[in-house]
């Protein structure tokens, strides 16, 4: 998801993958789908909480997708990665939405590759689109376009999995709270192999204004039933990618040491 590239606004480090007991993990899978007075976000000076759910964890605990994800109560997930964090920001929600809409910034985001053991670019190229046609490139989305009910499209040439078109759907957009979901609308292939069928890669981003100059963020990423078995075993990559997107939104240098998952 595109986020505007800025200089660091705070010194928060995404420093660790937390391993939690099943009860705590169950709570983390439920993002703030409704507005609450005091959501349980980590403090803005603390590392965000990142939790990895395997299919067996979800089935064992009988966990279903949260209502605001729009994934369908009976859909099966192969992997879910959740991030919950907060950061200090002295601007308005509209300034953060401008970062979300800056799809071109995906090219400049760095994440830690556990395969190559180095910081590397998230994307080779990216662009907002006027529709689901990958050739219909346009300028980045403005905050004013990210209104409730909007369906927007973008194209990304992921450095690992290659090009695909994604749809963004805004389900809430207000001065205090914003919710947007994303999914791939075209098949993602690597060489001759299908990695993700349409709709198999899904994410939800929730931003809330939780205190004066403090914003809370919840991100849920998942691979669904249309994900190939070739995509299994790369949990650290999912963790580092979601951490990179959080850093970009929070105004933290994306390749700041240490990585979330070394």
Structural summary, described in words:
By secondary structure, the chain is α+β, with helices and mostly antiparallel strands. About 15% of the residues lie in helices and about 35% in strands. The chain has 4 helices and 13 strands. The strands form 3 sheets. The protein has a 9-stranded antiparallel beta sheet with strand order 1-2-13-12-9-8-7-5-6. Strands 3-4 form a two-stranded antiparallel sheet. A two-stranded antiparallel sheet has the order 10-11. The radius of gyration is 17 Å and the shape is globular.
Percent in helix: 10-25%
Query: Mind telling me the C-alpha Rg?
Result: 17 Å
Order of helices and strands: HEHEHEEEEEEEEEEEH
* Regions with little confidence, pLDDT below 50 for 5+ residues: 1-27
| Strand order, sheet with most strands | 1-2-13-12-9-8-7-5-6
Apparent shape: globular
Which structural class do the helices and strands define? alpha+beta
Distance between the termini: 23 Å
Number of strands: 13
Q: Number of DSSP helices? A: 4
Query: Could you tell me the mean pLDDT?
Result: 82
% residues in beta strands:
35-45%
Report the sheet with the most strands, covering strand number, pairing sense and barrel closure: 9 strands, antiparallel
How would you sum up this structure in a few lines?
The chain has about 260 residues and is an alpha+beta fold. Helix content is about 15%, strand content about 35%.
Secondary structure layout plus pairing:
Layout: H1 22-28, E1 49-54, H2 55-60, E2 77-88, H3 93-101, E3 110-113, E4 118-121, E5 123-129, E6 137-138, E7 151-158, E8 162-173, E9 177-184, E10 188-190, E11 193-196, E12 201-211, E13 214-224, H4 235-250
Antiparallel strand pairs: 1-2, 2-13, 3-4, 5-6, 5-7, 7-8, 8-9, 9-12, 10-11, 12-13
């Amino acid at each position: 998801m595109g986020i505007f590239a800025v200089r660091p606004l705070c010194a928060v480090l995404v420093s660790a993958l937390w391993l939690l007991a099943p009860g705590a993990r169950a709570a983390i899978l439920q993002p703030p789908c409704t507005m609450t007075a005091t959501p349980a976000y980590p403090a803005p000076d603390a590392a965000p909480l990142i939790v990895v759910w395997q299919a067996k964890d979800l089935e064992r605990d009988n966990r279903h997708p949260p209502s605001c994800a729009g994934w369908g109560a009976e859909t099966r997930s192969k992997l879910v990665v959740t991030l919950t964090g907060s950061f200090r920001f002295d601007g308005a929600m509209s300034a953060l939405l401008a970062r979300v809409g800056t799809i071109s910034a995906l090219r400049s985001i760095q994440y830690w590759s556990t395969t190559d053991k180095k910081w590397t670019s998230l994307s080779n190229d990216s662009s907002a689109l006027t529709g689901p046609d990958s050739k219909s490139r346009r300028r980045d989305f403005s905050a004013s376009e990210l209104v409730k009910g909007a369906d927007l499209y973008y194209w990304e040439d992921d450095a690992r999995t290659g090009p695909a078109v994604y749809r963004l759907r805004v389900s809430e957009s207000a001065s205090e709270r914003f919710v947007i979901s994303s999914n791939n609308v075209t098949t993602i292939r690597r060489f001759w192999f299908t990695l993700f069928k349409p709709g198999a890669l899904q994410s939800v981003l929730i931003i809330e204004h939780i205190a004066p100059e403090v914003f809370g963020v919840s991100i849920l990423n998942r691979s669904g039933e249309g994900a190939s078995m070739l995509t299994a075993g790369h949990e650290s990559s999912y963790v580092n990618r979601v951490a990179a997107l959080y850093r970009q939104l929070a105004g933290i240098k994306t390749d700041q040491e240490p990585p979330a998952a070394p």
